[in-house]
Amino acid sequence: MGSTEPRQRIVAGAADMLRRRGVHATSVRELAKHAKAPLGSTYHYFPGGKQQLVTEAVRFAGDVAARMLAEELSAGPVEGLRAFLAWWRGIVTRSDFMAGCPVLAVSVEEPSEGMAALDAAAEVFTRWESLLTDSLRQHGVGEQEADQVATLTVAAVEGAVAMCRAKRSAEPLDRVAVRLEAVVTQTLAGR
Is 59 helix (H, G, I), strand (E, B) or coil? Predict the structure, then answer.
């Protein structure tokens, strides 16, 4: 990867710290240390400081999830949903319920340095919804219903991930998985 490797490592490390600690509890110094990068290189790669780094970390995390979701949705909406839920379940359980979603973390904290990170979070959520909507539409679901089910899915998964962290249990995500699969299956059957 050449010169982009340290930069990508910093972005990925920032996404990981955001999912664990949120925006305000994370400093640029800690982000650099977590990524095993010199502090000076962090400012070199991110002259916009913490705001730029957080924004790029949100986009990075969103892209990772979107690539996985798009790949899994190629098998159909139910299969894509199952994979999306299993992916999030893996994140919360492998981290012993210490990690959630960096996109949600940015979304719920008051922006301290502009709106770029919050705007990036909105774009990520919209992208995930669009992937789900497109899959449902490809399988015969009407536009309005597909939009509603997609928004319900993203909102329910994000809320369940937060609940898993708080309760130190995967049960909220497991319960949401059962209901969302029923909704998607029923939606597909009703077309």
Answer: helix
